[in-house]
Amino acid sequence: MNELLNRLSSIRSLSPELEAHLRSILRVQECKKKDLLLDIGQVCRNIYFIETGLFRCYYLNRGKEVCAWFMKERDVITSVGSFYKQRPSYERIQALEPCRVYFITYEELQVIYQRYPEFNYIGRVLTEEYYQLWDERLHLLQMERVKERYQYLLEHHPELERRVPRRDLASWLGITLETLSRMGRG
Description:
Layout: H1 2-11, H2 16-25, E1 27-31, E2 36-38, E3 46-52, E4 54-61, E5 64-72, E6 76-77, H3 80-85, E7 91-95, E8 99-105, H4 106-115, H5 118-143, H6 146-156, H7 158-163, H8 166-173, H9 177-182
Antiparallel strand pairs: 1-8, 2-7, 3-6, 3-8, 4-5, 4-7
């Protein structure tokens, strides 16, 4: 929990009252490899901070899994549309490794925003970081050729190459498993 509180306070100082409130409501969850934090059709009720481990988020397209993102230590994760609209999710969030996360509910987050205005700044910065990652991903898939996508992976997320199963990595890059193997991962 201390790592999460340090991460939040690195964005903006936490008042003693806010820190005490967070300590009182944050819950921990341990996940085994392949455990689901969220399944398709469920409403995402929680927002998570990853202390240890790696998750993937994927959806089904014509029965095929399509990896949308990977999140690891120190990342905040949720199913954005499902969490903020409190509607059923079209995606799954699954542990790729044993993981430990801290979480709060949607309702608890709303209370924090109302009671502790300084947390609105923290929430905005975290949201901006998330959208920057999403923008990079979208650009990568829409604008870059296959070699550039793979180079982006090696330069910006080298740890994924050794931590993520090949089929998931190929899906995230928007390429076939065979193409990934030809590019140097075999």
